Amino acid sequence: MSVTKLNIVVVGAGIVGASIAYHLSRSKDVAVTVLERNEPCTGASGHSFAWLNSFGKDPVSYHHFNRRSMDIWDRFARRLGGDLDLHWGGELRWEWAPERAGALRQRIVQLQAWGYPIRIIPSAELRELEPGLSPGPVLTASFSDIDGRVDPRRVIAACLQRACEAGAAVHTHTPANKLCLDGQGSIEAVSTPNGEIGCDVVVLANGTATTELAATAGVHIPQQHSPGVVIRTDPQPPILKNVSVLHLPPIDEDRHEIHLRQSADGTLYIGQGSQESVDQDDSQEHADALLSRAIHYLPALAGARAVPTPVGYRPMPIDELPVIGFCDAAPNLYIALMHSGVTLAPLVGELATLEIVDNARVEMLAPYRPERFRFAN
Ligand SMILES: Cc1cc2nc3c(=O)[nH]c(=O)nc-3n(C[C@H](O)[C@H](O)[C@H](O)COP(=O)(O)OP(=O)(O)OC[C@H]3O[C@@H](n4cnc5c(N)ncnc54)[C@H](O)[C@@H]3O)c2cc1C
């Protein structure tokens, strides 16, 4: 006896859409179609620093939300299989300026109270962890044991491959132009240049473009404009011996701090400020300046070449918290829009599948419902 499957269209093949497509496709009762207007990983996921963390995540419920996703990342990676360049080496930072050192100590007290395994370390331990560092004066240093990094491109490729093996269809260079409504306000099809694709549920995981597409179904999802730049270097011998991510303090009062990681192929990724800092300078001069700040603390990088990378745009809801769930205005429209999507991808894939396939209402998602914007401008 043939069973009618739930037809689900996932719009967007970044890390969030790919994870949702993968998790949905593990259910025998669904038929998944992924629409991607470019190639997979060409949105925010391809520009991400890809630090798996819950360091700067407020309020506490959002901290725990990220933490929970960190805790299931390994299972997600194991199920996907293959080499995702997933590395759990922790995160190391220090400060030399009294005000910044005080703020770091305060943050550590808060994170420890939330149960996050981060601690103040003596400067000797900092040097033990990363012998290549030339840190200069250290007022406060911290090490966060459970942070990691990953390669979003590999994760997306693995998710889509597993989804296809389970029967999903992935259409690249196929934009979803419009959501087509029936008389009751539900979506009956997604319009593409190749025609309409009928559906029972539509998942919008199309990052910054979510606002525009959701509006075609009368759903309002306001976002902030949040450009960011993570430059790269040519491949270098292993510079970091242990940690996954380094935060380096400003070299003087006129320049921002930077963050840095090295992937398995030797490429270094460098951004300035925090994970959320706005930056839209993709010039060679800016890339060289970021690298020179890294060389200040990591002299072995002296021969590296900085490669500028185009500006990336974070999917950033107006209140900076994720938007996840079905919409009252279009009951079969499911939104999955968020910053920190690399950290959150496994959990969001898992929970969205519970809600879409099993009709569950996951209580943990209550703060993130799209309805909170019903009356927003
Ligand atoms: C500079 C920077 C640094 C970051 N650092 C971190 C970090 O350290 N840790 C962390 O966890 N997160 C970080 N983030 C955030 C994280 O990268 C994003 O939250 C995550 O990549 C979002 O994934 P996504 O799949 O939702 O969106 P995207 O990766 O943007 O994917 C959306 C996809 O939808 C496609 N699309 C758009 N419109 C349509 C349409 N109409 N039809 C079909 N396809 C469409 C796009 O082409 C794109 O491929 C960073 C982001 C940036 C930009």
What percent of residues adopt helix (DSSP H or I)? 25-40%
Spatially, the strands of the biggest sheet line up as: 5-6-4-15-16-17-14-18
Give the CATH H-level superfamily of the largest domain. Answer: FAD/NAD(P)-binding domain
Q: What is the averaged pLDDT score?
A: 96
- Report the biggest beta sheet as strand number plus sense, adding barrel if it closes: 8 strands, mixed
Low-confidence spans: pLDDT under 50, at least 5 residues? Answer: none
CATH architecture of the largest domain: 3-Layer(bba) Sandwich
What structural class do you assign from the helix and strand content?
alpha+beta
Instruction: Name every ligand kind in the structure.
Output: flavin-adenine dinucleotide
Q: Give the topology string: H per helix, E per strand.
A: EHEEHEHEHEEHEEEEEHEEEEEHEEEEH
> How large, in whole angstroms, is the Cα Rg?
21 Å
**DSSP summary: helix tally:** 8
What's the end-to-end separation, in Å?
50 Å
